[in-house]
Amino acid sequence: MLGEKCNGAIIITTIENAVPEGFKIFWIPEDYKYNVHTNTLYLDQPLAFDIMTLKFDRNFPDYILEAVEEKPKTTYNPIIVFVITRESKPIAKAKFKLFKKNLILTITSPVTLFSPIIEVDDLAIHLENLKKKEKQIIETEKTKEVEKNIRSEHVHIWGPPGAGKTTLLVQIASKLKGIFIDMSTKNSIIDLALYLLAKTLKKSGETTETIKKTIENITKNVDLKTVRGARTLLSLIRAQIYELAKQTQTYLIFDAMDQLPEELEEGKKDTTSFYTLIKLLKDIPNLKILTSSRRREGLGFKTIYIEGFTEEEAQKYLKEYNPTLDTIKMLPHPILPIYLHYFKKHLKDQKITEISLDMIGNLPKTVEEWHETFWTNFTEKQKILLMLMAVLPGPPNIEAIAHTLKNKEETEIEKIKEVYKTLEELKDFLKEDKTIFHPLFQEYVEEKIKQQAPLIKHYTEKLVEYLHKNNEIEEEIETIIKAIQLKIATHKIKNQLLKTYPQTIELLYIKGQYNKLLKILKHTLPIHKELGNKLGMASDLGNMGLVLMDLGKPREALEKFEQAYEIDKE
After folding, report:
1. Which of 94, 309, 352, 413 could make a disulfide contact with 335, Cβ separation 3.0–4.6 Å?
2. What are the residue boundaries of the structural domains of the chain, listed by start?
3. In angstroms, rounded to a whole number, what is the distance separating the alpha carbons of residues 393 and 102?
4. Which residues are 92's β-sheet partners?
5. What is the pLDDT of residue 367?
6. How many CB atoms sit inside 10 A of residue 137's CB?
7. Average model confidence (pLDDT) across the chain
């Protein structure tokens, strides 16, 4: 049978460990046969991937499972078996773990709706929070220019970090009652789709309970991060925006495009990327889009460069300290709002009521010098806490940090109280969710971690140990990867990744989070290489190939398969 297939092909023949414990087959294609005793799916017609055309001869294996227990185990560890042929002859047989292919499980995680989106009613609150932190937000010439242009065309603003892009976008969103989306958050596009759908259902008079059930059904039955699911998602967003824009002028405001999650950033030509969403939306009547980034993006929008305050704007920003224009001229140019934010904090801390010319000459010359000044004044507790927060993904896990820092004499509760107290002391450097408040300060803290590696290595080991013990696996993996990136991962931490990652990538494959899965495999591959584990290397490469196939990248997938085959031969 194999010899009848085309020259140069990968032939998929069977799937072992096909059904996890607690599930049963709900549906399989007609040309599959399932052996319940061996838990194996057999393909009557083997699936061929042609090396010349870089395509499968039909759809990749899809099947649906159904839970037969109230709380079945979700561990899923199927193995795909394929044969590589050349010149119509089988030259190798290999097995690689296949962590999921378009499964619909009846167990789903609770959905957190709209987390990256500031709704219209909340925009004023967000603006007030900014005002509290900044004392005042001034309307700059650039704000006026952006507002004028966005009323008639799409606009993209770009400029250096700290130039005030986010503040400008929030001002515009508040004034025009736009939908503000922070693109640096993990589920920003998914949450945008669900937010728009919920808004439409609410307008049509549906109850909150009905809206919740609708959202749950979508998240349960549509794999939003597969290619098929992503296309469905983008179509959903376009349809909802189209309906919204028919009723009223609509503004979509996307902040931090340069910090897109990997699954939206990669493949700008892909049909599932954020850039495709922009193309789908930009021709809708009554819709205007405003985006921001550190770099100039090729979106075909009106482009406006943001470099900070003019001298007159800086004088207005600092007006409570009575600066003269001559004093302002002595400040480092361009005058970044983040620089003036730090300057104001310094004035407040030192109880200074008026700015003098002599004072300006003694100020830090750059934002980084401000960071160094503040860092010098931090206590050791504050420094260690900030460094641990920079290692952990997302908002700080207070219990994990407290456990990491606790000594034998302290109780868990005492340490948690102390961590909260320290966070309160650092509030000027944190966002509302307790994450580090600005990317520039985050980058500075990460450099400090590298300089104090021995101490942070010790704490990171304890942190990873705690996360593993409490089964917070995904956060554990993210923390280990961050430690590897910061070059503070010890052998113990790396070995922990090798023990933990099979379980995590199963979960990621079930969720369809392919780019995150690839990110993990790219970190485990060099560890396996370092250890001389050729079996581990071949497995990682094979799994990369399977994921790349799902992402629609057959050439890259074939390259990984061949690398895995070469290692397997040795």
Report:
1. 309
2. 2-97, 117-305, 311-367, 375-569
3. 28
4. 84
5. 95
6. 20
7. 77
